[in-house]
Amino acid sequence: MGDDILTIEEVAKYLRVSERTVYDWAQKGEIPAGKIGTVWRFKKTEIEKWVNERLSSSQKPAEPSHVVAVKNILSPDRIVFIEHSTKHDAIVALAQNLATAPQIKNEKELVDEILKREELMSTAIGRGIAIPHVRLSSVTDLVMSVGICKHDLLDFQTIDDTPVRILIMIAAAYNQHSYYLQTLSFFSSKLKGKEVRDALLSCKDPMEAYNILTAE
Q1: CA atoms of 79 and 167, how far apart (whole Å)
Q2: Tens of pLDDT, residues 30-64
Q3: Which residues are 36's β-sheet partners?
Q4: What is the C-alpha separation between 31 and 164, in angstroms, rounded?
Q5: 10 Å Cβ neighbour count for 1?
Q6: Measured between alpha carbons, how far is 193 from 190 in angstroms, rounded to an integer?
Q7: Could you give the 3-state DSSP secondary structure of residue 90?
Q8: 84-142 pLDDT, tens digit each
Q9: Where are the alpha helices (H) located in the chain, listed in sequence order?
């Protein structure tokens, strides 16, 4: 069986849901899946597309009390300009920056889990953007870092063949599933506009990028 085929266990681990949830989704046709005999199997490329569509699609409008307040989860010192040219090195550098946030209690776990998730399935969502993300019990509250890459990251698996240049890294507590998904969707939508992406890539300092990302 090729590396492109995932088991229920692998999909559940990637999506951070129970195996039973994945099984139910497959039974109801809510997630792309196929059966080999009596066993459910999932194509990695189809699951990746499904996840990206969910991130990019317009979800239910957020209630005012749940609007993502970027200033509460991002600070200028967690916006970094990355000189690395490989996915691994760029992700590690950004995770180490994110680990300086007081909400992160275990740097090694954060770095390891972010890398594991990326190995399982690319977090590139197209348009030169990737959103590495993870929920961990060692994280006390949702927090993020942003990496603006000086070089194209060519070894991301992208859905549109556009090299990744902007990294949005999000870590959340394990019980923040809703807020976590909402934050992923928020930044996916915010960076859809080419003018916003171009403005970020032309920034000269973190404060300039921070002002762009926090502008309403």
Answers
A1: 10
A2: 898 887 777 888 888 888 888 877 776 544 444 33
A3: 39
A4: 26
A5: 8
A6: 7
A7: helix
A8: 999 999 999 999 999 999 999 999 999 999 999 888 888 888 899 999 999 999 999 99
A9: 8-15, 19-28, 44-56, 70-73, 87-98, 107-120, 177-190, 194-201, 206-214
Evaluate if pTM is beyond 0.85: no
* DSSP result, 6-37: E-HHHHHHHHTS-HHHHHHHHHHT-S--EEET
Q: How far apart are CA 214 and CA 216, in angstroms?
A: 6
Q: Write the burial class of residue 180 (CB in 10 Å: 0-12 exposed, 13-18 middle, 19+ buried).
A: buried
Residue 66 has what DSSP assignment?
G
Q: How far apart are CA 175 and CA 95, in angstroms?
A: 21
Q: What is the dihedral of CA 22, 127, 190, 156, to 10 degrees?
A: 50
The two three-digit tokens of residue 103, written as one number: 């909400």
Q: What is the pLDDT of residue 180?
A: 87
The helix (H) or strand (E) run that includes residue 152 is: strand 143-153
Residue with tokens 């171009």: 198
Cβ count near 119 (within 10 Å): 9
